[in-house]
Amino acid sequence: MSNGLSSGKTIAEAALIAVTAAACVIPDAWEIAGTAYTMQSDPGAMFDAGQAWLDSAGKLGEAADAVIAINNALTTTGWEGADQEAFSEKLADYTREIMTAQAFAYTVGVALMVAAFEVFVAILVLAAIAAALTAFAVAILAATASIVGDFGASEALEADALLFVVQAETGLTTLEGAMKVTDGVLAGGVAVFLTADIGVQVALGNTGALTDLGRATVDSLGTIAAGLVAKACQTKLGKAGGVAVGRTVFNDLATAVGIGTTVTGQSPWDPLTQPIDPSPHGG
Question: Do residues 165 and 26 lie in contact, with contact meaning Cβ atoms separated by under 8 Å?
């Protein structure tokens, strides 16, 4: 199902490619490339999942209304006595259970939708950073490929790019912290309503609710485990990819034997222009 957030997945992938390419020219941007990898997600699918929960909540609301309508219709028939009271009491219990489940479904649905919007905004921020880094990389390459001589323009661009990278990393770190807080609140809300849902059912005599919860938990262990492993791998790979190539032992060894590229943190033009431009270029 397509929605307004469905483009988020494509935007995130494009931003990752752009940042990675820019990092080959601006080595300090590799950390942002690693972060971009960990931000790969599908907010459109998250929104659709939230909508499905809201649809379920709507169906539960219709069921509750139907139960109330049945009870009201029976009261007009003149049916009285202990049987009628017991029947009405049981219908009231069912109504409470349904309404509690409805509240839980609404909570999960809203939480997923809020998380989807949150992720989409983060992806847009990443895309803006990717566009800026791409512009810097293109400008640096253009300046480097210009007439050999004074590399002041290239150096100035590299300095500006480094400053932008630092600001972007700080912004992404702040954004990540805010998202964690929001996600914690959303998860807490879901946990509260799940507890309330089970508690109400048990209190009303549905002791099988605990068994159903246990069975559902066991059945979902495979999915949960797969999700946790996938997230852990994504985080680890993102951190590994976020190590600036220009700051590694490889760069030190390459420099020692006179090998240098923009990927290893040194301009390839430095050896050629050393007589007239002794300043090193690159990060």
Answer: yes
